[in-house]
Amino acid sequence: MTLPLRPVSTVGALADALRARVLSGEIEPGTALPEQEIAAAYGVARPTVREALALLVHEGLLRRERNRSAYVPEVTLSDLADLMYVRRPLEDLMARALIGQRVPGAEAALHRMAALPAEAPWSDVVGEHMALHQALVEAVGSPRLERLYGALAAETRLGLVRLRAVYKDREVLVREHRELLDAIAEGPEEVARAAVAAHLSHSWGGDHQS
């Protein structure tokens, strides 16, 4: 049951609420989000809904076409395969640049992920996962790498929605990322690069295809 939002920072609060529902999978791909229905459900004005939806469209979590309500786009298996095809070389560059280093931001994100309560929404897990990988990319110190990686962020988040059924035991996800960070920090380079490639292939391919 949805509840009316407080009038303070209503646009941001509404965007946060809808984002969490999209990333948790509650709002499924293809679902339309009519402004009037959302306004009624959350007790806010339509201009507020319009601004909140615009934020999510900008993030890539929603899509809007002419004469159609905003909706959650479908990320197909083909889309995910292509996403990994592009991400692998970027994360390989990251691994090569960070050999022998511990990245505080990534370690902190992993710690937060592990500390989430069992009842925490999947959107919180997605947030920490994205923060971990983003911290690794930022630690390289290449603005262009960050921009390229950032362009893939929305599809990555939407893809992670599908992994919630795979990682019912969050400890598995935490352990996989612990192993990834250890491989980068401890090296050697070949091991770290192989760990990054395996992490992407394992998380998004085969039995973990999302």
Structure report:
InterPro entries: GntR_C, TF_FadR/GntR_C, Tscrpt_reg_HTH_GntR, WH-like_DNA-bd_sf, WH_DNA-bd_sf. Keywords: DNA-binding, Transcription, Transcription regulation. It comes from Nonomuraea purpurea. With about 210 residues, this protein is mainly α. The chain has two domains: about 60 residues, Orthogonal Bundle (Arc Repressor Mutant, subunit A); about 130 residues, GntR ligand-binding domain-like (Four Helix Bundle (Hemerythrin (Met), subunit A)). It is built from ten helices and two strands.
CATH fourth-tier homologous superfamily of the largest domain: GntR ligand-binding domain-like
Number of helices: 10
Tell me the fraction of residues in β-strands, as a range. Answer: under 5%
Count of distinct structural domains: 2
Spatial order of the strands in the main sheet?
A: 1-2
Order of helices and strands: HEHHEHHHHHHH
Radius of gyration (Å): 18 Å
Structural class, from secondary structure content?
Answer: mainly alpha
End-to-end gap: 28 Å
Please provide the count of β strands: 2
Domain HTH gntR-type: 8-75
Organism: Nonomuraea purpurea
Keywords: DNA-binding, Transcription, Transcription regulation
Pfam families: FCD (PF07729), GntR (PF00392)
